[in-house]
Specification:
Layout lengths: L16 H21 L10 H14 L2 E6 L3 H4 L2 H11 L5 H15 L13 H10 L1 H6 L4 E4 L2 E6 L4 H16 L10 E4 L5 E3 L2 E4 L2 E4 L1 H14 L8 H19 L5 H20 L7 H6 L2 H7 L4 H11 L23 H46 L1
Antiparallel strand pairs: 1-3, 1-4, 2-3, 5-6, 6-7
Helix pairs in contact: 1-6, 4-5, 9-10, 9-11, 10-11, 10-14
Amino acid sequence: MPKNTNNLPYFKVHRKAVEKTLAGFLLRKIRPKIREKFPQHFLVQSIPFETLNFIKEMSKKYPYFLRFDIRLYYPSINHRILLKKLPEIYESISRRFKRYLKKDIPEFLSQSPYGKGLPIGSPLSYTLAGIFLLDLDLKLRNPFLRQTDDYLIFCKNKKEPEILLKNIILPKLKELSLEINEKKLKSGKFHRDKVSFVGFDFHAGYFTIEEEKIEELKKKIVKLTYLTRKKSEKAIIKSLNNQVLGFGHYYKFANCKRTLEELDAFIRMRLRRYLNRTKDSKNRQGNLLLTNEVIKNLGLKSLLRIKEKYALKKKHIFRKTTKNKPKTGLGFREESATQLEEKAHRYEQKLILEELRRLTGLVKKLERKIAKLEKKVAAKEKT
C-alpha cells in the first residue's frame, strides 16, 4: 500500500449488471428528498438548458459567484466515511438496503486496495460520488449548482465567497478527507468575469462553448480520420456523425453559431482528406468533386443544422444569409481531367475578380478621404 494515498490514480473496472441495479435503488430512495430541497441538483436534473437558465436567472439576483471543484475527487473518496454516511443520509433502511450495506457496496469498494477511491465509468460510482458530498450541499444556504464535484455558488456580495470557503466549505471538506482544487478555485462578478461550468462559458449574459471542449472535439475528429485507418466511407461517416450528434445536441443551447460553422468546415475538411487519401487538405480537384452538397448527400450531419432545427422549434430568429445555389455534384465522376482543370481555372478567376473588387473599394475610400482633406485645407486658407 502506498504511503501517500492523496495522489491515487483514477482506475476503471468491468461493469456489472448488479451495479446498475444497486445504483437505481439508491437513487430512487434519495431523489425525492434531494428534489424537494435542491430541484436543480445534478442527481435529479441533468438537462443543460435548465442549468443554463438557472445560471442566467440567479446571476440577476446574486451578482457574485464562487466556482471550485475537488482535487482528485473519485480517487479520494474514503470508504470508511462513505459507509458511515450512507445510513445517516437515508431516513429508512429496509432489509434490502441493509444487505447492500453489509455485502454488495463493500464488495464493490474492495476493488480499490487503498481504502479509498471509486472506479470511473460505473453507474454505482456516479451515484455514490453524488451522495458523498450531500453533507456539504445541505450545509450551503446560498443557491448553487453542482455537477459531481464541480460547484458554482451564487453570492450576493464580494465578501461572501471568502466567508463561505472559510466557515463552511473547507471545514466540511476536511471532515470528509477531501481537498479543494486550488487551480480551479475562482470567484468574481457575473457579467464582468467569465465563469466556466459544465462545458459552457458564461460571460456578459451569453453562453459560449469552452475552448477546451472545442479542442477535445477536434482531437477526436482528427483521430477518427487518420489516413492509416482502413474504414469504409460509410463507417467513417457513421463514426463522425456519432461525435457530431453528441456535441451538437449538448451545445445547441449556447450562442455559438460561428463556432459551429467553423467546426462543420473542419469536419468536412478532414473527411475530404480521408476520402481523397491525400495529406493535402487544399487539393482543388478533390474538393471540386466533394462539394459541401455532395458531403451532405453522403450522410454527414451538421452541427449548425442541429442548432438551427432547435432554434426553429423554439422560434428563435436567425439573420438571413444569402447562399449560392448548391452544387449537386451529379456526373462528377464521369468528367475528364481537362474539365476539372477548367473548373479550377474558373475558380481562380473568380478569386482574382473578388480581390480586384476589394482593392477598387479601398481606392474609392482613399479618394473620398483625400477629397475631404482638400476641402478642409481650402476652407482654412480662406479664413
